[in-house]
């Protein structure tokens, strides 16, 4: 589907959301989409699924779109869900309640689509909804991007003349200010991880606030916009020429939410990057996702990345969670006369081949049609699921993705692509980089020191070069062990697929792309790891070319591996 006109984008939205229409509950306040588990109760799961389509419907309505069926669903659902006397009442709250997250979409509707979300409600229903929303002020919420949910709720209540908390509004804004690092980048509360939450949360909500409060708080709104303009110059490097974005970090089940920042960028009136370029990023991105296997047989979004996959999911991924990606359709709120709709979707501008993103602790490398990131391995040691695989590999690619472990036992279950994996002599457990103890991101290399297991210390240097990258590892071990330096996982069962390993080299390829590794070090030997199914986020079956090395205890060992890729 080619995306150019406003109607094209509306039809794209319809393709994603229309399959939900027959699935809403009798009272329209809940939406049951599946039976997989998550950390919050069923009422929150179904309320989340109800709320998240609003991230597209609100801008659709604000931009003049008409869909009577959805209007009726949400008029009835908002009234019933917030009515304490109704059987589908969303309920009261606990601290850190998931329903606080889902309030933001409703608040956005009150702010930007008043005539569809708020005005059709009876006076009693308005009061019930306002009272229910106010509950976010009476409980503890995390010190992170969740502060914006409280901010947006209080702004929406304030603008409608209902009870709100000025104290919570101000404290939330003060916390957001404390998260700003400079160079356009925030941290997400106390986390040192730099991932899509900086774009589709910190900046996205900041730009919503700027659009809603520009008259009341021009200086703060100016700061939010100015930071987003600076951030855009870095974030554009996360996108491939074919529309795919870098698979990196957590919450990848939100899929096309990766481009939500660009929709907020034009919505808030930012223009240092031309509207045609922004439109091109969004259009190619949504088209790329439209070609992936992301729906079930009924057209409902699944949990996973480019195909249904619970292995890579986080503990907070409920069946309705993927609909947070609808935030990327905020552009639908733009008037028909906006340059975004008038200009053709333009290609990416010429970008630097190697770009240091200082605040993100990574180097970006544009290798022809492929984008690769070399991060420093900065993350929370433990978190929501598969944190080391999502943040601490040596390289992440828009074309090869990355793999998550099925287990820590044996190589094929661990699927340690783009990692140096250790197996201690006499054992089957696999140990890789979990988090860097120290790191340095220079103009031409990333250096990190890390410990896969107590008694093994590694300093790794990753250097971008023509056609790929070079890794230099200095290893000191108290154990005899084998180290496997692994390239990217390459899709199996494709036309022209072949693999070969011999001497100090290994290669896996097919007609469209491939990866080759060559090593230099003690007993270097090329090999192929046949990864377990459903470990790679981009395709369900993959093989990993690797070089194995013998690590003798008590000695300082130097390993050097060259990883090259080719993409047609």
Give a short overview.
With 568 residues, the chain is α+β, with helices and mostly antiparallel strands.
CATH T-level topology of the largest domain? Glycosyltransferase
Q: Under the CATH scheme, which architecture of the largest domain would be assigned?
A: Alpha/alpha barrel
Share in β-strands: 15-25%
Shape: elongated
Radius of gyration: 24 Å
Regions with little confidence, pLDDT below 50 for 5+ residues: none
Number of helices: 16
Write up this protein.
It contains 16 helices and 19 strands. It has 568 residues and is an alpha+beta fold. The protein folds into 2 domains: 337 residues, Glycosyltransferase (Alpha/alpha barrel), CATH 1.50.10; 214 residues, Beta-galactosidase, Chain A, domain 5. α8 runs parallel beside α10. The longest helix is centred in the middle third of the chain and has 18 residues. The radius of gyration is 24 Å and the shape is elongated.
From the structure above, extract its key features:
568 residues; alpha+beta; Glycosyltransferase; Beta-galactosidase, Chain A, domain 5; 8-stranded antiparallel sheet; 5-stranded antiparallel sheet; 31% helix
In terms of topology, how is this protein built?
Blueprint: H1 6-17, H2 42-51, H3 54-62, H4 68-81, H5 98-112, H6 114-117, H7 123-134, H8 147-159, H9 166-179, E1 180-182, E2 185-186, H10 196-213, H11 218-235, H12 260-267, H13 275-290, H14 339-342, E3 354-357, E4 362-367, E5 370-375, H15 387-391, E6 396-397, H16 411-414, E7 420-424, E8 436-441, E9 446-453, E10 456-465, E11 468-477, E12 481-486, E13 490-491, E14 498-502, E15 505-509, E16 513-520, E17 525-530, E18 542-551, E19 556-567
Antiparallel strand pairs: 1-2, 3-4, 4-5, 5-6, 7-12, 8-9, 9-10, 10-11, 11-19, 12-18, 13-18, 14-15, 15-16, 16-19, 17-18
Helix pairs in contact: 2-5, 3-5, 4-7, 5-8, 8-9, 8-10, 10-11, 10-12, 12-13
